[in-house]
Design brief:
The chain has 395 residues and is α/β, with parallel strands linked by helices. It folds into two domains: 50-269 and 360-394, Rossmann fold (3-Layer(aba) Sandwich); 273-358, no CATH class. Helices cover 35% and strands 23% of the residues. The protein has helices at residues 55-71, 85-94, 102-120, 136-147, 160-173, 203-217, 220-223, 242-254, 272-278, 285-301, 362-371; strands spanning 11-14, 46-51, 125-129, 152-157, 178-183, 228-232, 261-267, 310-317, 322-329, 333-337, 342-346, 351-358, 374-381, 387-394. Strand 4, helix 5 (160-173) and strand 5 (178-183) form a beta-alpha-beta unit. It is globular. The structure holds N,N,N-trimethyl-histidine. N,N,N-trimethyl-histidine binds at residues 94, 102, 234-236, 238-239, 279, 286, 289, 355, 357. S-adenosyl-L-methionine binds at residues 130, 136, 157, 185-186.
Length: 395
C-alpha cells in the first residue's frame, strides 16, 4: 500500500464576494489571484481545506481499482469513479428523471422533518459525507441555524472542485457559518473528520496518526465540545457491500461522542419494476452515466474503450436486495489500457458490474446500525414508504 500519506496541512482559501467560480478551477487556482478582484483581507470569509487525498494518491487509487476490476472474474469496477465533471452532471440529470424517485422522496422526508432532526440533535457542526452540491444540505443548515447553535459546515468529498464550489455557495448563503472542507474517501478517512473523538485502539486511530490528528481539528476546543450531525444522504450507503457498510458504520461509530448523531438516507425495497426503471430510464441518462466510467478510464489511464461497444444493463438481485448496473460488451473486443500496461479481452455479451445499489427495510437499517454500535433514535419515510431517513446515536 503506497497510498497512505499523512494529511497535508490544512489550507485556508479566501473567498472573495459574489464572483462566479471558474468551472475549471483546480488546486492552485486561488480566486484572489485574479486581476479583477483584489483580495480582501479582514472580512473575507474563509474555507479551510484538509486534504487527506492528494491528486496523485487519487490517481494511484483509480489505477489500482481499475487494474483489480479489469482483471477479476467477473469484471467489476467500483462506482466511486463515475463522478468526474461529466458524471456529476449526468447524475444531476438522473435526480430529475421521472423514474428516479429517491432524490425527490428524500427531499420530501427532509422537508417534513428537518426541524425535528435539529431539535433532536442541535449540532454546532454539520458534516456531510459525499457532499456533492445538494440543496438538501440547505434544508438541514436552515433547520440547524434556527436552533442558534450552528457554527460550522464540513463538506467531505473525494472531489476538491466539487467541495470548493459547494463550500463557497454555503459560505455566501450562510454568513457567520464557517466552512471546513475535507478532501477524502469516506471508506478510508472517517477517523480524520474534525471533532472526531480521539480513537484509542481502532484501525481508524492508526489512520489518524500524528499528522492526521493535527489536520482533523485545528484546535482542541474547536472541534469537540459541540455536537456533530453527520449526514450521509442520497442512499449512497447502498453502493457499499454489506461488509464495507459494516466497516464504514463501525468507523463512524468509533469516533462518535455522546451527542453526535448520524442522519442516514437509504432507499427501501419496493416493486422491482419501479426499482429497475429508476436505473434504466427511458431517456437513456443512466445508460450514459454508466458508460461514463469508461470515458474516465480512457482519459485518466489512456485506455481505448469504445463506448458504443458497451450496453447498459440494470437488474434487480432479490437475493442480495440490490440493483446491479452492468456494462455488456456487445461484441468480442480488446481494450488497451496504456497506464496499466494491460489489454483486456471481452467476450461477446460479457457483463462487467459497475455498481450495486442496495435497498433496505426499516428493520434491516436498524440491524446494521445496531451491529456497528449505533441505535435508532428516529426513523422517517415519505408517505409512500419509498425512502427512509434514520437518525442514529451511539448505543
Ligand atoms: C448516488 C449512489 C445514491 O445508487 O441510486 C443513480 C447512484 N446510479 N443511478 C444510486 C446512481 C444510477 C445513486 N447514488
Amino acid at each position: 500500500m503506497t497510498s497512505r500519506t499523512p494529511a497535508t496541512a490544512p489550507e485556508t482559501i479566501p473567498v472573495p464576494g459574489r464572483q462566479p467560480h471558474p468551472a475549471t478551477a483546480t488546486n492552485g487556482s486561488d480566486p484572489s489571484g485574479r486581476p479583477d478582484k483584489p483580495a480582501r483581507t479582514d472580512q473575507t470569509p474563509q474555507i479551510t481545506v484538509d486534504r487527506h487525498l492528494t491528486a496523485a494518491e487519487r490517481h494511484a487509487s483509480l489505477a489500482a481499482d481499475m487494474r483489480a476490476g479489469l482483471t477479476s472474474h467477473p469484471r467489476e469496477l467500483p462506482p466511486k469513479w463515475f463522478y468526474d465533471a461529466t458524471g456529476s452532471l449526468l447524475f444531476d440529470r438522473i435526480t430529475r428523471l421521472p423514474e428516479y424517485y429517491p432524490t425527490r422522496r428524500e427531499h420530501a422526508v427532509l422537508t417534513a422533518h428537518a426541524a425535528e432532526i435539529a431539535a433532536v440533535c442541535p449540532a454546532g457542526t454539520l458534516i456531510e459525507l459525499g457532499s456533492g452540491t445538494s440543496e438538501k444540505t440547505r434544508l438541514l443548515l436552515d433547520a440547524l441555524r434556527a436552533t442558534g447553535v450552528l457554527r460550522r459546515f464540513v463538506p467531505f468529498d473525494v472531489d476538491e472542485e466539487t467541495l470548493l464550489q459547494a463550500g463557497q455557495d454555503i459560505l455566501r448563503a450562510y454568513p457567520g457559518i464557517s466552512v471546513h472542507a475535507v478532501v477524502g474517501d469516506f471508506e478510508r478517512h472517517l477517523g480524520l473528520l474534525p471533532g472526531a473523538r480521539p480513537a484509542a485502539d481502532t484501525g481508524a486511530a492508526a489512520g489518524a496518526g500524528a499528522a492526521g490528528a493535527a489536520g482533523a481539528d485545528g484546535g482542541h476546543g474547536e472541534g469537540r465540545g459541540d455536537r456533530r450531525l453527520v449526514a450521509f444522504l442520497g442512499g449512497t450507503i447502498g453502493n457499499l457491500r454489506p461488509a464495507a457498510r459494516g466497516a464504514f458504520l463501525r468507523a463512524l461509530s468509533d469516533q462518535f461522542a455522546d451527542g453526535d448523531a448520524l442522519l442516514l438516507g437509504a432507499d427501501l425495497v419496493k416493486d422491482p419494476r419501479r426499482l429497475v426503471a429508476a436505473y434504466d430510464d427511458s431517456a437513456g441518462v443512466t445508460a450514459a452515466f454508466n458508460r461514463n466510467v469508461l470515458s474516465v478510464i480512457n482519459r485518466e489511464l489512456g485506455a481505448d474503450f469504445d463506448l458504443r461497444g458497451f450496453a447498459h444493463v440494470a437488474a434487480w438481485d432479490a437475493e442480495n436486495s440490490w440493483i446491479e448496473m452492468r456494462l455488456r460488451s456487445v461484441r468480442e473486443q480488446e481494450v488497451g489500457v496504456r497506464a496499466l500496461d494491460l489489454v483486456a479481452r471481452f467476450d461477446a455479451d460479457e457483463q462487467m458490474r459497475t455498481e450495486i445499489s442496495a435497498k433496505f427495510t426499516l428493520d434491516s437499517i436498524a440491524a446494521e446500525l445496531a451491529a456497528a454500535g449505533l441505535s435508532v433514535s428516529h426513523q422517517w419515510t415519505d408517505p409512500d414508504g419509498d425512502f427512509a431517513l434514520t437518525l442514529a446515536v451511539p448505543s
